Amino acid sequence: MSPLRVLVAPSGYKECLHAAEVAAAIVTGLRRACPEAVIASRPLVDGGEGFARSLALASGGRVEPVTVPGPLGPPVEAHIGWLGGGASRTAVIEMAAAAGLRLVPPAERDPLRTSTRGVGVLIRLALDRGAERILVGCGDSGTNDAGAGMAQALGFRFLDDAGRELPPGGGALARLARIDASARDSRLAGLEVEVACNTHVLLAGPRGVARRYAPQKGAGPAGVALLERGLETFAAVAARDLGVRGLTSLPGGGASGGLGAGLHALLGARLRPWQEVALTACGLDRALAETDLVVTAEGGVDGQTPDGKVPGVVAARARAQGVPVIALAGTIGADVGTVHAAGIDAVFGTLGRAVPLPEAMARAPEDIARAAEQALRGVLVGLAMARRRH
User: Fold this and answer.
1) What family does the Swiss-Prot or TrEMBL record give for this protein (predicted)?
2) H or E stretch covering 241
3) Which residues, listed in sequence order, are joined to residue 91 by a DSSP beta bridge?
């Protein structure tokens, strides 16, 4: 009998482990259950943390460390990825490296104040180094300013009705009266920008980013309403001053707190589903053709998982090739039953017992390994039963 072939294709656990770390923990657990299994690892990044490094290294490129303003202003250590081969003039930027939620201490999380200015500085630094094309990964953001801070770092002016520059943060967007592009960086005219993002997230409305994600970034009900109003104001002003219409319904416009819409309106960026970018780079479909089982993972699995999240996308690709899927999750939503229709056959929790958050984060690698081991042992029991029946 040929050995079991398992494909490990997880996302990261937000603010805890990167995708590669989650994959390593899963592989450890699978080896305990079945040492002879043939295991392939394809950690996936949906535009968030690890995106630039993942794409740069997958292409034989390099990663360059840089320092930029963080979401609250003080500098943070970030990086720019450079693709290898014939795409050496392509820079890869992940917004999370400059404006991610992980960079904001829990007690200071407030998307009314946090800014994407550091993302604009990353773009400027890439231009300084000769970039002709920039691929921006959107995900894991701690901001909700529609890319206003990013644009201000590139020479755009966001003005109120008295002609004063708006302060940082999404809370100020509701006062936006005019966008002045006269002093923007002239190099932007010849720059090609593509954005890898979750195209299910819109800028405003019932499926808008403020309503769906701003509470996770520290906004209360009043703050969410103000952010929503600010995003609608940005869309209206951009339509008038920049001639870019339809931002509130643009697929992916709400990515990273509206950064997707900002990049499209201000830099002419093309928004692409993250899976078109990341899955092509890692060769997921080829790997699926040579596997018997997929194990994916994310920090939380719930009813939103099929809407562009890593486990949902992996499951859809696996189902197309008839491969069963197991998902591991730190938290499991009450509506988790909906994911089975999307191709996830079983979900296992990785949190062993109720512990304080810092301890849970420290224990995460071992808890993930344990859950992976037990999940695969269950699969092996099923295989043994099937052999007895035949």
Assistant:
1) Belongs to the glycerate kinase type-1 family.
2) helix 221-242
3) 82, 134
